[in-house]
Amino acid sequence: MLGNLFKAFGKKEPSQEQPPDAKPDIPPPPTVDEVVPALTPQTLIATTKTYSINTSEVDATTTVVDALDIPTYGERNNPIEMTKRFLGRQPIFSNSQSIIGYEFSLRNQLDAPVTATIQQMQDEMLIASITDLDLKPMLGNKVAFISISPPMLASDWLVGLPSFHIVLALNSTQITDPNTTLALCQQRIAEGFCIAIDNPTFSAEQMPIIALAKYIRFDTEQYSAIELSKHMITTLGRSKATIIAKHVESEDEYVAYQSMMFHAFQGYFFTHAIPNQAKRIDKNRAHVIELLNMVIKQAEIHELEAVLKRDAVLSYKLLSFINSAANGLTRKLESISQALILLGYQQFYRWLTLLMFSSGNLDARGRALLQNALIRGRLTELLGENTLPASERDSLFIVGIFSLLDTLLNTPIKSAVAELNLNEALTQALVDDNGPYAPYLRLAIACEQGDQAQISELAQAIHLDVNSVNVMHVKTLIWAEGFTV
């Protein structure tokens, strides 16, 4: 696994002409244009006939007066343009804390009231973005939730989606024509889609629709604990659907909703430390921390080799990675010292940072945390690509990865950082939210949380265009989904 992850960080593989101690030359990760195939817009049909419309007798209620400020110039936008529409993602976990899917949504919010026309355009924009992102290869055995209004069930826009990976989520408060919605749900289920109902009321009119739902979701921000408990009792008695708690953002909330018998949980609760549990620095991580500190001090190769030899698992992982076919070596390395010389201090340090998250017994929660750390690290690095010197980009990656050390080790971030001999700039960013790297980390976390207003403000502060930030975020999500963690 770490070989695939590490491969994307851009080291170079040696050719036959290179000396034995040359660093491996590994191709850079693919661009978003290579990963995301562009959909060819429909050819505009030329015509010489001039048409005119007499609007003098058109009913005002049938006239479209709403528009979204996204120019298309008569053509469908390409994938890069779609990523500028602020596509966000939130993970959904099973009771065992394995990721079962993601909800994809548009992060851009309109100040004006959402009319039926605006809602339709937002739905179409979301579906178009997901269609152009070609989610199927990225999802694997996971599903993608998309929230749409009930009338959208009749739209031809759904044709381009991979139906067997898509859950169409309907808000029960928007169902105004239950009979029509029921018929459309049945049609879409026959095509392979699944249906989710948000915040159901269990009215007699909606019960046939709820009976078709594979998932039922409750927005925990809309209810008190007593109200949620009552809804759960009703739902468990009337439906066999998987019941999901939305907006679970802390460990306390996760424990509370788990006790209410929710089956799944949507949010970023797994990125927070677990209260009242012991600090998690096992023997494997202790060796990794020791090596990290030695690399910072530029210890001699034979000294690093001596520490690695004390841990058979670490030695095996290092040699397995170096000798993997993906690295294209012309001969197998037989010693740890050869592997260390080939990697060099900088790339060995990056490899160790990933090992911090993947050492020991990696459970479902640990895999989710590793993937989130990868996304933070990679995005923080990309954000500084054009504004900081190349020599500092590794530090940005380290800042992003280590920003979740408190959760990984289940200890305050100050204590976690104290175990490592990090330089002042790294320590400032992680502990004090200050220094040259802090603005990039704050922006990466804002992208994760989906706060578009904050993203705009933080991007402006470091002289980045908000559209380019969103493109970087989607690139990072695609990049991270390409690995099995």
Automatic annotation (TrEMBL):
SUPFAM superfamilies: EAL domain-like, HD-domain/PDEase-like. Residues 10-24 have a biased composition (Basic and acidic residues). Residues 1-30 are annotated as: Disordered. Gene3D superfamilies: EAL domain, Hypothetical protein af1432. Pfam families: HDOD. Residues 281-468 form the HDOD domain. Transmembrane segments: none annotated. It comes from the Bacteria. This is Cyclic diguanylate phosphodiesterase. It comes from Sulfuriferula nivalis.
